[in-house]
Write a structure and sequence with these properties.
single chain, mainly alpha, 1 helix, 2 strands, 60% helix
Length: 106
């Protein structure tokens, strides 16, 4: 019972394996493509969020330095601040502290 005796059955089997391989290759290809797209999008979003956090840290440090420059500290450690626009500035959405005045004199 060699395959030559049953050519139609053998051809169907080879064709079925070939279709299965093609479908498997296409499905795996689409999965790999979807994974790569998700990786790129996630990487870009993570970079954006990290930049936002660094911007908030920089804004917070700038406010602190600005208040320290404008503050006049006497020999006893008493803080006299000059009224400025720094007290009324808008906070960055990722800033950790409500005000940089917490740092002055502490």
């Amino acid at each position: 019972m060699s395959p030559a005796c049953y050519p139609a059955k053998h051809a169907d089997s080879v064709l079925m394996r070939s279709i299965r391989r093609q479908v498997l290759a296409w499905v795996l290809g689409f999965l790999v493509l979807a994974l790569l797209i998700m990786m790129v999008v996630s990487y870009q979003r993570a970079l954006h969020e990290i930049e936002e956090i660094f911007d908030a840290e920089l804004a917070q440090a700038a406010k602190l330095v600005g208040k320290l420059v404008l503050a006049d500290i006497d020999s006893k450690g008493t803080v006299f601040t000059v009224d400025s626009d720094l007290n009324k500035s808008v906070r960055h959405k990722y800033e950790k502290y409500g005000s940089s005045a917490e740092f002055v004199g502490s």
